[in-house]
Structure formats: structure tokens, C-alpha cells
Amino acid sequence: MLHVTRGAWGSRVRVWPQLSALLGTPRALSSLAEKMGVYRKMWNPTEPRDWAQQYRERFIPFSKEQLLRLLIQEFHSSPAEKAALEEFSAHVDFCTLFHYHHILARLQALYDPINPDRETLDEPSLTDPQRLSNEQEVLRALEPLLAQANFSPLSEDTLAYALVVHHPQDEVQVTINLDQYMYMRFWALGQRVGQMPRMSSVGSKRGFFTKLPPAERRYFKRVVLAARTKRGHLVLKSFKDTPLEGLEQLLPELKVRTSTLQRAMLNLTLVVSGLVFFVNVGMVVLTDLKVATSLLLLFFALFMGLRASKMFGQRRSAQALELAHMLYFRSTSNNSELLSALALRAQDEHAKEALLAHSFLARRPGGAHCPPEETCRWLQSEVESWLLAQSGCVVAFNGSRALAHLQALTPSIGLYPPPGFPRLDPLAPGTAEVPQAAPSSSDP
Q1: Which of 19, 186, 420, 433 sits at a 20 to 30 Å CA gap from 393?
Q2: How many CB atoms lie under 10 A from the CB of residue 83?
Q3: Calpha distance 321→300 (Å, rounded)
Q4: Do residues 135 and 228 make contact, with C-beta atoms less than 8 angstroms apart?
């Protein structure tokens, strides 16, 4: 039940019971703050605690076309086997297309009332409890889609590490106020350790005394964010090539901060330039114009204050511009567009898992007629070893899910396309013709 309280300063809606499924407890962000305090006490942490147990990569690092070519080269080299695998792949595409189209339609119907980018006619505005209830339904419906798309949820401990630790390679540093947020959740896939691609050349260059950053760092190929501020709405966004320590840069409400080293360098510059100005100009004014010392010091303090305000303001503006350019290049999809992108990715991962299960079980003595538990373990072990050999990435393959996908497809194999299925004409290339105006009766 929702409890609404009204006071002298307006109305306030308490929605903690509705958010219990999202946050676990009403003090979930307080728990996050406590874990952030633990990381602040650590000396130079380089990764979250027990990171190998917290995050397990499940994303298959090949496109469906790449995977199909690899499977044909290794397991289906004869023309008949190649044709059979390509026919099976087409059948998988046909079956999964309608399945995920239905899922996407249901998600869009849930999200449409709270979609901030809706281009259709406005509907009656929702109350805060109704909006929060809709947001909760959307996030619950997104969970299985994200799991099938092989996104891994980032734990609260990982988020605490990302909010506290600032990597020296990040030229822009930000800070957030947890009290402004009702919830924030992250999912990621495609963990990499290597040199980060530079997204923008805008911003300040590193100084002479600045410590050179390490050449490699941990980042993700894709990150999905779901966050809500107390005065805002649900924000759904997807980003690419995001470092682990830079997750807080993706949040909707933040402030650009100047690092301690940069503040020290700016203050040193101000002191040196101020002393030079005072010696060369101030002493001349003091001796020649007979200005009182106290008045001269007052003017000097005002001058230095204005100069400091201008220098720090210019620095923050440059960092804000750098952050804007970085987010511009990293952002891949927002809000309702993200739902479509996730449905396509989940369909692609579904097809890849079915192809792997089909190819590996075909070469196993006994096929899938062994006990299901034994078959799942064997399939998981074989596929993980093969993916490691082919890509160099450690992937946690879900053997039981892949086997279920294959068993769901098996009864209908050979029915692609189904009898009587309509065939549409392909789209003709070229631009549409502009209708010509009818000739005037005055023309000869």
C-alpha cells in the first residue's frame, strides 16, 4: 500500500513498498554508501573484491555469420553438411523472429505510457505511484531479455568500487549525490583488458609533471543502465567501450569535479603569477602613487579571486565539453530504442546458442540421448573449450539453456518455410519517384 503524506511544504509520496523488488530493502542505496566507505579506506584498489566470482562473461564473442563460418570449417566441411547447417540456421532465424517480435511488442506496450520520447499524442499524465509501478513492471520484463542477451548484472560491490575509484587515464572526473537517486542498475557484456579507444580529442592535454597512465585497463564493450532520480523518470541507456571505473560518468545527474592534482597545479599557477604581478606592478603603485598598503592588498585580493574563479570555471567548462563529447560517441541507444536493440541482441544470442548445441551434439556419440544433466555438462565443457581456443576469451556457456533451445526447435525442423507462408516481394533499390504535375491547359 502507498502512503501519501501532506505537509506545509507540499506533498510527498512514499513509494518504498513498490520499490522493494528493485532495491531489496528501503535502505539499498544506504548499503551502497557503506560499501563505498569500505573502498575509500583501501589503498589504491585496482579491481572490485573477488572480481572473478562477481563477474562471469557469458557473451559469445562472434557474430552469427562468423560463428556459422567457423562451424562449417570445423564440423560441416562437406557440401551436404554445409547445406544442412545453413538450412537449420534459416529455420532458427524464422522461429526466433516471431518469438522475439512478440516479446518486443509486449515490452513496448508496457513502456509506452512512461516513454519520455513518445512521438504520438499525449495521454493523461500518470501519478507518481502509477509511474513507479509501470517502471517496476518494465524492469521485471527486461530481466529475462537481458539474461538471454548474455548481459551480466553488475553487483552493488562493483558499483561501489566504480563510484569511488578514479582511474588516472580518465581526464574527466565526476561526482554524484546518492540522495538524488531512487535506484541505479548496470548490466555489462564483452569484458576486455587493453588500451581504451579514445572517443574525443576535445579537452585539456596532460601536463609535463602528470604521471603517465597504464597502457591497459578493464572495460566493457556494452553497458546497459537503468536509473531513476527522485525528481526525474526512468532512464534506459546503452553505451559502448565503457571502463569499469567510468560507470558513474553514465548516470543522469552528476557534477564535473577537478582532481586534487589539477587543483594543486592551478593553485600553484595562481600563486606564482600573483607574486610576479604583485612584485612588478604592486610595488610600483605602492611607491609612486602613494597608495595605502591595506587598499593595495584589498585590490590584489579581489584581482586574484576573479582570476581564480575564471581559471577554475574555464577548466570545468573544458571538462564538461569533454564529457559531453565522450558520451556522444559512446552512446548507442536510449529508452524505447534500447528495447528494440535488446530484443535483436537476445534473438542473435539465442540463434548462436542453438547453432553451437546443434553442431556439438551432432558429433557426440549418442547425441542428446544421454541423461539431460550429463548432456548439459558435456555441452558446456566442450563449447567453452572451443570458444577459448577460437577467440581467446573465457566464456561461461549456458549448456542447459542451449539444449532447451535446441529441443524446442527440433519438432518443427523441416517446416521452414511453412506451407502457404506468404512471400513478399523484395524492396526495390532506388528512390521513390516524384509525381509529375499535370500539364496546364495553356501549354501548346
Answers
A1: 186
A2: 11
A3: 32
A4: yes
Q: Which three cell numbers stand for residue 127?
A: 501519478
Q: By C-alpha distance, which of 183, 189, 185, 174 is closest to 223?
A: 189
Strand partners, 333: 238
Give dist(CA 377, CA 400) in Å, integer: 8
Q: Rounded to the nearest 10 degrees, how much is the dihedral formed by the CA atoms of 270, 272, 276, 281? A: 20
Residue ranges of the chain with pLDDT lower than 70? 1-28, 198-215, 257-301, 303-305, 307-320, 366-369, 410-444
Angle CA 327–63–101, to nearest 5: 80
Of 228, 237, 232, nearest to 330 by C-alpha is 237
Largest CA distance in the chain: 104
This prediction has a pTM of: 0.76
Task: Give the angle subtended at the CA of 252 by the CAs of 49 and 246, to the nearest 5°.
Answer: 35
Q: Do the Cβ atoms of 240 and 222 come closer than 8 Å?
A: yes
pLDDT confidence of residue 179: 87
Contacts 24+ apart (CB under 8 A), 61-64: 61/190, 61/387, 61/391, 61/393, 61/395, 62/352, 62/390, 62/391, 63/348, 64/89, 64/348, 64/351, 64/352, 64/355
How far, in Å, CA of 92 to CA of 84, rounded? 12
Whose CA is closest to 330, among 255, 225, 235, 226? 225
62 backbone φψ class: left, alpha, beta (φ>0; ψ -120 to 50): beta
In the block, cell 560463428 appears at 67
Could you tell me if 353 and 60 are in contact, meaning their C-beta atoms sit under 8 angstroms apart? yes
Contact 184, 227 (CB under 8 A): yes
Rg of the chain over all Cα atoms, to the nearest angstrom: 30
Cell of 399: 549448456
Residue 350: its pLDDT value, please? Answer: 95
Number of Cβ within 10 Å of residue 50's Cβ equals 10
Contact 57, 63 (CB under 8 A): no
- φ, ψ at 190 (rounded to 5°): 70, 55
What are the Cα distances from residue 291, in Å, to 286, 306, 407?
5, 21, 94
Summarize the chain as % helix, strand, coil (round to 5).
Answer: 55, 15, 30
CA 370 and chain centroid, separation: 40
8 Å CB contact between 379 and 403 = yes
Residues 6 and 371: their CA atoms lie apart, in Å, by 62
Among candidates 128, 95, 105, which has minimal Cα distance to 16? 128
Q: State residue 290's pLDDT score.
A: 59
- Per-residue cell: 394: 573465457
In DSSP terms, which residues pair with 175 in a beta bridge?
Answer: 255
